[in-house]
Amino acid sequence: MPVTRSEEPKVSKREFVQRVSKRAGLSLRTTQLAYDAIFEEILELVNAGNRVTLTGFGKFYAQPHKGHDVVLNIRDDAHARGHVDDYAVLKFSATRDVNKRVTVPPRSRDE
Predict the structure, then answer these.
(1) pLDDT tens-digit profile of 6-61?
(2) Selection from 22, 21, 38, 39 nearest residue 30 by Cα
(3) Which one of 31, 37, 56, 91 is most buried, by most CB atoms within 10 A?
(4) 94: β partners
């Protein structure tokens, strides 16, 4: 049976920054500043229409979506409608080499 999102182990931003700090031998403060700067820069560049390519890792880009009509709450009113305006989402596409390095944790015998 597949693992649901709620069952997946999670790593918080704080834990992630601590792990990177230890791996790089940098202070926690320096690592936090770098983390914030990297992700703000990626968002700023993508919002300006750029595709951000990190060679050997992958690319970040905006994927546009068309607006559409939606049913708001069919239980209360089957005719309640709304509209979602056009929007974009941040996408990431890993390189082939990075994808080859991703592994699936072994399943327990109970699954």
Answers:
(1) 678 899 999 999 999 999 999 999 999 999 999 999 999 999 999 999 999 999 99
(2) 21
(3) 31
(4) 58
Whole-model pTM above 0.85? no
Compute the distance between CA of residue 90 and CA of residue 42 in angstroms, rounded to an integer.
10
Query: How far lies 45's CA from each of 31, 32, 33, 34, 54, in Å?
Result: 21, 20, 18, 16, 13
Sole residue written with tokens 């607006």: 67
Q: What pLDDT was estimated at residue 111?
A: 55
Cα(94)–Cα(96) distance, rounded to whole angstroms? 7
* Helix 13-24 / helix 28-47 crossing angle, nearest 10 deg: 110
DSSP secondary structure string for all residues of 19-79: HHHHHHT--HHHHHHHHHHHHHHHHHHHHTT--EEETTTEEEEEEEE--EEEE--TTT-TT
Helix (H, G, I), strand (E, B) or coil at 6: helix
- What are the CA-CA distances from residue 108 to residues 1, 5, 104, 111 (Å)? 11, 17, 12, 6
